[in-house]
Amino acid sequence: MKKKLNVFTVSGLMTGPILGSGIIFLPSLAYEMLGEHAIFAWIIIMALNILFAYVFAKMTIIASDNRGISTIVGDMFGSRFGTLAANYLTVAVFFGPVAVAITASEFIGPAVTSVFHVSPWVTAGGVLFICAMIVISDVSFMGKFMLVLSSITACLLLAGSGATLLRLPVLSIPHSLPAPEALGQTLLLIFWAIVGWEILGNYVEDVENPKRTMMRAMQISLSAIIMVYLLTAFAFQNSPSHSMPDLLLPVAGRFSGAVFSGLAAGLCICTVSTFTGAVARQTAARFKNTGLPKIFHHKCLTALMLLAVNYLVLFLHASGILSFQNIVGIANTMFIGNAVLGLASGFKLIPHIMIRIGIGILLILLVIIFLFSSVYAVVLFLLITFSCFIPYSCDIISRKKEREKQRQ
To answer: Which UniProt keywords apply (predicted)?
Structure first.
């Protein structure tokens, strides 16, 4: 199979979704909690981002196929855990893209409604359909699309934030340390700014020379992400209006609101497309290994299956059965499960003491975040977990009974 992703297209594939909706909301949320001290939280979380990216990029280059990190989890802890990691990521993508599509519809909804007179649910459904078509398209197109969109976003945010800071007569620089409790709560909140590196491995079959390409792409993406987050967050807390769209005033003028809405919707599409594409490829690889007919071996069918489930979740939300908070909570809990298993495998795989200490810190943060999960999310999490181990336990019991009969 011809490899279609190079260093730059892989970089685009990662930069867009990791910036994602986080760059839209997290700077304002961090500022609300810490004020001028928010920059301390961003520096810490970006330091953890370096470790998070390194661990998963290192693991990606030894992944055997598009099952990605789940194959390494299986190698480290047994096939049941590998299946569990894949199941966590799959269920997360049943719900997560719906929440992101709803967010995108809030930005582009007014423009769409004024022309087509449709409800926000239809707009969100349209976003999901567009993302599915991007996933089904040639992977090189997908990578180039993400590269262009993420590059434009990064350039505009960096230029706008830099110009905003240069125009200010005085910069607000904190001269004391933040309260530990408030800092801890903020770190938990903005931890999601670094989630996304764990799906790198689900594209490994499409990458030219993964060992070289993945590490270089990670370095480029990581540099861009850190610069955008730190500069944008610092400009936001210094801006008199404390408004994300206003950061684009120096480069977009009176169109800054419209430009920001377009960028936000574009980043949401990047996030949904990349995560859905990762699970579509992972699922196709899993179907292939189980000996199912060839029709199940292609990402097109698995992408459409995921789209169908997303539409079901969207319908449940539109009907008032599932709240937005429930959807986000379930997705986050499943992402945590997948990330924990991946990091635990990285801890076992990478012997460097400092890396292991960093992984330990990340695992503690993830466990703390998990404790804030909703009841619905925890119940589904437990069902997914037990579904992987109950058959195994039953098999052990049956084997034990057979041995007892043989002894008798």
So the answer is: Cell membrane, Membrane, Transmembrane, Transmembrane helix
